[in-house]
Every structure is written in structure tokens, then in C-alpha cells.
Design goal:
Number of helices: 12
CATH superfamily: Ribonucleoside hydrolase-like
Number of strands: 11
Shape: globular
Number of domains: 1
Length: 313
């Protein structure tokens, strides 16, 4: 592989294959494999869309299907840092074996400036790595996060913060305050990139991954239609939240970026996980701690996504 490849660690709560679970994290893993400018070196798993045991098993299975069984998978945190936020039945004891946070620390510190972390689940593993070794913040090339919503709202009273931030707001705030180079891809843009039923049918005409992904996509769209009948934007399609975060690693021009100081609410019951983005930074101005995505070229992303996945076996 060429020296120009961007080397990444993908931190994920992958659920593609679990009943009635979101599929976009599976597509993100597939895109990380399919992008010829990326080199996927490690997958770390975290509890979120599904429990960490399931996320680990599904990641291993999907990598094998994609012909990348050589990529190691390190299980990580089962639930959020704060025990009070853990969900009964969803945050079991984490798996034994190589721990995600330790693996992140070891790899990043061994080659400062070389590795990018793409975090598409709750940020617990990244926060724990920073707690173990704060120098990870300056040794990592950058951290690209699918998380937050900055110029809009979730409009869900029971989950006021975007899901990944809501699951572990303490971890999100720890990452934001770490000093790492951060790019944040939030719901403002990811809700605009969609996979339709005809797109799923196009994938099904491809290889083994395409057939599997198309089947799970159809099930996920149908599940949304049954359980969220008022959310018209979800009908006949599903959002590709996580794949967009993978795509911008090598194609940053797909979105418009804006410097911002971002903080996450960790205490408030009705504002848990809400991200506050100071875009003007004029009143006692804090220094920007991240770049946030504010617009997206949805058509360009969709074309790139379908083209990349069509090349998979």
C-alpha cells in the first residue's frame, strides 16, 4: 500500500445485522474498507446502537465478509463513564481480551501524527484513552466524530442530545476539552444524506456485502416506518450518518466546515448531551476547539458512496 494512504482507527457501535437496528455503521465500516485512500488498521467497539458484545461480533463477521479478517477488533466500553447513565440490560460487563482504550493509546503513541481516529459511536473509548494517556490528544493526527447537532435540534424530548453525545455526554465533553484536532459531523448534515429503497436494490445487484446490506436496509426502513409514523423524512429511506464521517476523512470538500467552540451539557436532565456551538466567539471569546460541518453536498456524497460500495466483493 502507498505511503499517501490515510491510516485510521474506526471506533464503532456497529449494529448492522442485529434485529431492528440501524445499518449506517455497517456501511461506514464497508466504506472504510472500500476507500482506496484509506488504510483501516484497527476497529474498536463500544456499547451504543447495540451492546458491545454484539458490536464486536458483528464487526468481526462483517470484516470477514469484506475480505479484511486481518484487521484486529478490540472490544471496549460497555456503557458510559457515569454509572448513573447506564441502561439496564444494554450495558453488560465488557468483554475480556484486548481493551479498546489501551489499544488506542498503544497505537497512537507508538506513531505520533500518523493515525486518525474516526469515532462513529459514543465517545467512551476515546475519552478513556485520553484519561489513560492525555498525550494522545496531541499524538493523534485528528479525530473525526459523527456526533452532535449544532445549528438544529434533535426535536426529541426524551433524547435532547444527538444519540452518540446523549449516550455518554461526559465522554463527549472530555474529548472536546482534550486539545485534540477535531472535526465534528453532526445531524445538521447527516440527516440530509439518505439511502433509498431503489439504492438498496442497486446494492443487492452487486456482491455478497451488497446483498446483505440491502436486506438489512429494507428491514431498517420498514422498522422506522412502523415505529416512527410521524417522521415523514424517514419514510422510504434511511440516513447515512456514519458513512459521511468516514467519507470526509479523504473528501473534506463534501461538507462546509466552520470553526467553533463546542461544549456538551453533561448534567441537565432535559438537556443531556446537547451540544452548544459558539460560532461567533465574540463575547469573552473562547478559542475554537473544533471544526463543525454545517452544509453537505448530498448528491456528491451519494454518488461517491454508491460507487465505492459497488466495488466491494
Amino acid at each position: 500500500m502507498g505511503e499517501s494512504l490515510t491510516r485510521i482507527i474506526l471506533d464503532t457501535d456497529l449494529a448492522m445485522g442485529a434485529p431492528d437496528s440501524d445499518v449506517d455503521d455497517g456501511f461506514a465500516l464497508a466504506l472504510a474498507v472500500a476507500d482506496p485512500e484509506l488504510r483501516l488498521e484497527l476497529v474498536t467497539t463500544v456499547g451504543g446502537n447495540t451492546d458491545v458484545h454484539t458490536a464486536t461480533d458483528l464487526s468481526i463477521d462483517l470484516l470477514a465478509l469484506l475480505g479484511r479478517a486481518d484487521v484486529p477488533v478490540a472490544p471496549g466500553a460497555a456503557g458510559p463513564i457515569d454509572p448513573a447513565l447506564r441502561r439496564a440490560g444494554r450495558d453488560p460487563v465488557p468483554p475480556s481480551g484486548p481493551r479498546a482504550a489501551e489499544q488506542i493509546v498503544a497505537r497512537v503513541m507508538a506513531e505520533p501524527g500518523e493515525l486518525t481516529i474516526v469515532a462513529i459511536g459514543p465517545l467512551t473509548n476515546i475519552a478513556l484513552a485520553l484519561m489513560l494517556e492525555p498525550r494522545v490528544a496531541t499524538a493523534v493526527r485528528e479525530v473525526v466524530v459523527m456526533g452532535g447537532v449544532f445549528k438544529e435540534h434533535t426535536n426529541v424530548a426524551g433524547m435532547p442530545g444527538e444519540f452518540n453525545f446523549w449516550c455518554d455526554p461526559d465522554a463527549a465533553q472530555a474529548v472536546l476539552g482534550s486539545g485534540a484536532t477535531l472535526r465534528l459531523v453532526g445531524l445538521d448534515v447527516t440527516r440530509r444524506v439518505r439511502l433509498t429503497r431503489p439504492d438498496a436494490a442497486r446494492l443487492a445487484a452487486g456482491g455478497e456485502f451488497g446483498r446483505l446490506a440491502a436486506r438489512h436496509t429494507e428491514h431498517w426502513i420498514s422498522h422506522q416506518e412502523r415505529t416512527m409514523p410521524g417522521a415523514a423524512v424517514e419514510h422510504d429511506s434511511c440516513a447515512l450518518h456514519d458513512p459521511l464521517a468516514v467519507a470526509v476523512v479523504t473528501r473534506p470538500e463534501l461538507v462546509t466546515w466552520c470553526d467553533a467552540y463546542v461544549a456538551v451539557e453533561t448534567v441537565g436532565r432535559i438537556t443531556r448531551g446537547v451540544a452548544v456551538a459558539d460560532l461567533l466567539m465574540t463575547d469573552d471569546p473562547p478559542k475554537a476547539n473544533s471544526r463543525i460541518a454545517t452544509e453537505v453536498d448530498a448528491d456528491a456524497f451519494r454518488s461517491l458512496f454508491l460507487e465505492r460500495l459497488a466495488a466491494l466483493p
